[in-house]
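Provenance

Sequences were taken from public entries as deposited. Structures were produced by running a predictor on each sequence independently, with no templates supplied. The record for FABP6 protein from Alaudala cheleensis is shown for reference.
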Amino acid sequence: PTAAMAFAGKYEFEGDENYDAFVQKIGLPSDKVEMGRNCKIVTEVVQNGNDFTWTQHFPGGNTTTNTFTVGKEADMETMGGKKFKATVKLEDGKLVADFPNYRHTAEICGGKLVEISTSSGVVYKRTSKKIA
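Predicted structure for FABP6 protein:
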């Protein structure tokens, strides 16, 4: 199945819910917790069919890039910088990936990028507005 939604674009962090509870639950180190709090992350998505390059630009010049193809195992990196392997799937127009200690979904909703991470019942939601 080809990706039903066009994810390509640049999105700037707009707001989130449940950040502290979630990062505590996944055991994120405190320096990373502070770095990620209300931070104007810009997410840049390059999409070519089912091939994606997903880059997060953090203030201060740090970036995290994950490159993957829907339905194929890929080398990925977590919020905390841990490396792991995951297969990103497409379910109901959402990209779904199982990280080591949380499940992550991403979808385009009303022109915004909505990402939801769930760990042991704690749901973290991040919304980003399209800027390019």
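The two ends are 26 Å apart (CA to CA).
The helical segments are 19-26, 30-36.
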